[in-house]
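Researcher: Here's the sequence for the chain we discussed earlier.
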Amino acid sequence: MLEVKTYVLGPIRTNCYFIKDKSQGLGAIIDPGGISKQLDSDITELGIENVKYILLTHGHFDHITRASRYRRFTGAKIVIGKEEDEFTKDNSLNMSSMRGRKGIENFEADLLLDDGESIFLGDTKITAIHTPGHTKGSICYLADDVMFSGDTIMKEGLGRTDFPTGSKEDLNASIKKLMALDDNITVYPGHGDITNLGIEMKNYI
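Model: Thanks. This is the structure I predict for it:
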């Protein structure tokens, strides 16, 4: 059973999540695109040694900028999709060097997940679903009855496909893959409000 806390960070108002496996009190950070004092406090309260993973849904700067900082803070392993590995080391792909921005601190992920591979956070199984389209290596993280979708699917819409490695055709195929999942899954997106997978599939996709 997961506990989920949300922090809206950075100029693009990106959702960062702090999840905790209630049975063992272990935590993970999802998409730390910025620094949050509240997140830092919540990590300290849990115990920094209990934060095991930093999960990245994809490699755009607004989702990964502070991954290295939180790895240094907690010792957690950075996880990203296998097809997205180069984004953490290429400021053109992660778009941090565009529009006059200073490029982010490049880093290597500790663990690359392929489609269908899983990790465990305490008793909670977290499975990577490869959902290319927004970027070629985007993944959604499915845990119990919740999914962290990054910029693949959001409330009342889908992610853009006009960024480097994006593909409308790939995104359409990814959405078809997600249609096979349970309608009752709660979706925690990269931007905006949480939603329900069944509602999105029936009304907006």
